């Protein structure tokens, strides 16, 4: 038997296939999502005036911002799960929510203000926001880290931070349907602070559990 035939025979005998990181990450997030939804349904719930709120473009903007964070963060984290991957050329994907918020804040500034800027900035739910988004993010973060462990990231802390970003983005999408503060200033301040907290947790945990 020549070497090529031997290699083909050994490959044929090995029926085990390592699942792709993307598939494992997807399944892990699907398993974790019901826990986040349970937290949402138990302690928060959809705002009572949601049908009226849907006519407000700034209400819809919140979902555009949170999803434009979560989806690119998933893409970049999967990229970083490969050992040879670098962040260079990928970071711009994470600027989508920044651009959307900048446009929304500018649009709100050109409108006749319904309330003073300080009230729009502080809102009524800042404390709830800072607790709810991280709380709903934790099951998703655990799932994301579990999924990304099936890769071989050469930058575990950075990959963990991306896991935090995607988890916070998904959790913030849930929270947005409860939050009655629709001002882009509120979103830019309190959603960002809550996301930064989850990102820091993801980086700290990821530096340990994603190391290989």
TrEMBL record:
Keywords: Membrane, Transmembrane, Transmembrane helix. The keyword Transmembrane helix applies. InterPro entries: NrsF. The chain crosses the membrane at residues 21-43, 63-80, 92-110, 130-148, 157-176, 188-210. It comes from Bradyrhizobium frederickii. The keyword Membrane applies. Coiled coil: none annotated. This is DUF1109 domain-containing protein. Pfam families: NrsF.
